[in-house]
TrEMBL record:
Organism phylogeny: Eukaryota, Metazoa, Chordata, Craniata, Vertebrata
Spans annotated as Disordered: 1-30
Organism expressing this protein natively: Ameca splendens
Subcellular location: Nucleus
This protein's record includes keyword DNA repair: no
Protein name, UniProt field: Matrin-type domain-containing protein
Length: 89
């Protein structure tokens, strides 16, 4: 029995050529580059770090450029990635 093709005669592409789960996530940490600013919601609350800021500049520039935020964001994205892999598998 030939199992290399599916019913449509199309080869199934390996799912992980484009997305390497190990580098899924973030570019290298750069203290001058705010990252994950989309996670800072109204009132400048970072839902990644559970931190509240009253000042947009501080929240988005200072906080999102901090190492602590970076680490938490990376963990958050890894978690999301795992969730995604589970639901699609
Ligand atoms: Zn944060």
């Amino acid at each position: 029995m030939d199992t290399s093709t599916n019913q449509n005669g199309q080869r199934e592409a390996p799912p992980s050529t484009d997305v390497n789960p190990n580098e899924a996530v973030l570019p290298p940490y750069d203290p001058n580059t705010p990252i994950g600013v989309e996670h800072v919601k109204m009132g400048y609350y970072c839902r990644i770090c559970f931190l509240f800021y009253s000042n947009e500049d501080k929240a988005k520039k200072t906080h999102c450029s901090s190492q602590a935020h970076y680490d938490k964001l990376q963990k958050h994205l890894e978690k999301e990635q795992k969730k995604k892999m589970k639901t699609t598998a």
